[in-house]
Design brief:
Layout (H helix, E strand, L loop, with lengths): L2 H15 L4 H9 L3 H19 L2 E4 L1 E6 L25 H14 L3 E6 L7 H14 L4 E5 L5 H10 L3 E3 L7 H7 L6 H14 L2 E8 L6 H14 L3 E6 L16 H14 L9 H6 L3 H7 L4 E2 L6 H4 L19 H10 L3 E3 L27 H6 L3
Length: 379
């Protein structure tokens, strides 16, 4: 059996069985076989199309503030970075951003921000209630970091539906390398469990190529995500920020990120998996390649133009053009060029879709999609 055939067999088994032994996951991650990778992406793309058709869900991202009391070593808005011009959007501004998005057709708003003590549970719950009242048919997603269980419950009762909290790495020693001693992996995992228990559609994920990350760490992450079964899985490359301790570390690999997207699609056919901003920031065709590897969500930026540059988690973060809400027409054209369309529905996780997971299916009909041709078409 050739190496390509072996990798194809592993991708088939992953779809069929939902997981693989660690050494096989390692092979899928590490073997740089062009045809094997094409097959993996093709199978993942076909799996996504079976569940979602050629539709890509959009989420309007509002970066509500960059004040943060945490000091994550990778993050540009970490507390120790004295060069950040801090900002905090007021409730009215956030509502206006969402109103603009609503009129464009967005039915999910993602509120993301640093962990800001001023933005306490009371203020956050009030903000969520106001949004819930103003947009009864829209989904509200929060991405505001670690809170108490009571706070998560309060936000849920106020009308939040989804929560994004990447675990970043499932390996405790690696977690300790990326975070200050005041943060712990156990606490983050506890938060994730609680979010799910409360009833949130819960998202987790990792940065690919974060400093100190090994293939074994990634295998641990895959196994954790397999067991946790998040509704949403955010996978983006690590990108250095010049004012952090990791300023001189290399960025993560686009190809490895794409392989992980495909692996997660095969493991969780119904999961909501974004082609992340980090992927689009690192590579001009990153968004399209993410979708062609099995992603089914994009998150255009709805924040006010003047605050976008201040929410710099990493250098050269994309927030304009097809990464921006006002660039929706451009996004639509770029998606059309690879055979996809924007879906303006809420795009909730569909529990019923899970029933169809991991069924055996004839995969011989997968057309070899020529990524390069697709991408050259994009104007
Ligand atoms: N405070 C919130 C939101 C954090 S920003 C929280 O802790 O969940 C959202 C995500 O951006 C993080 O979870 C992290 O995975 C990603 N991120 C931060 N810095 C990054 C960097 N330098 N490169 C790539 N992704 C980064």
């Amino acid at each position: 059996m050739t190496e390509t055939d072996r990798l194809k067999g592993l991708a088939d088994r992953l779809l069929l069985e939902g997981t693989l032994p660690p050494e096989d996951l390692r092979s899928l991650l590490l073997h740089h076989d062009g045809q094997g990778a094409d097959y993996l992406h093709g199978l993942a793309r076909q799996t996504a199309r079976k569940h979602f058709g050629n539709r890509i869900f959009i989420r309007g991202l509002v970066e509500i503030g960059n004040c943060c009391h945490n000091d994550c070593l990778y993050c540009g808005i970490r507390r120790s970075n004295r060069h950040v011009e801090r900002y905090r959007l007021d409730r009215q501004t956030i509502l206006e951003c969402c109103r603009t998005g609503y009129e464009m057709g967005f039915r999910t708003f993602v509120l993301q921000g640093g962990e800001d003590p001023w933005m306490d549970d009371e203020r956050t719950a009030t903000l969520v209630s106001c949004l819930r009242q103003a947009f009864p048919d829209a989904a509200i997603t929060l991405s505001l970091g670690e809170k108490t269980v009571e706070a998560y419950r309060r936000f849920f009762e106020a009308g939040a539906n989804r929560y994004l909290l990447r675990h970043e790495t499932h390996n405790p020693a690696h977690y300790a390398l990326l975070h200050p001693a005041s943060m712990s992996l156990d606490h983050r995992l506890h938060c994730l469990e609680e979010l799910k228990r409360i009833g949130y559609q819960t998202g987790t994920g990792i940065m690919v190529g974060s400093p100190g990350q090994t293939a074994d760490h990634l295998v641990e992450d895959i196994r954790f995500i397999h067991d946790f079964r998040p509704h949403m899985i955010g996978i983006g490359p690590f990108i250095p920020h010049h004012d952090t301790p990791f300023a001189h570390e290399p960025a993560g690999s686009v190809e490895l990120t794409l392989r992980l997207i495909s692996i997660f699609r095969l493991m969780h056919p119904a999961a909501l998996i974004p082609a992340t901003t980090a992927l689009a920031s690192l590579s001009p065709d990153g968004r399209e390649r993410g979708i062609l590897a099995g992603a089914n969500v994009v998150m255009p930026n709805l924040s006010p133009l003047h605050s976008r540059a201040k929410y710099a988690l990493y250098d050269n973060k994309a927030s304009l053009g097809a990464e921006a809400a006002e660039g929706l027409a451009l996004l639509d054209r770029r998606l059309a060029a690879i055979g996809y369309r924007i879906d303006k529905g809420r795009g909730d996780y569909d529990n019923n879709r899970r029933a169809g997971c991991h069924t055996s299916e004839d995969t011989t009909g997968i057309e070899a999609h020529d990524l390069k041709t697709d991408i050259l078409c994009i104007k």
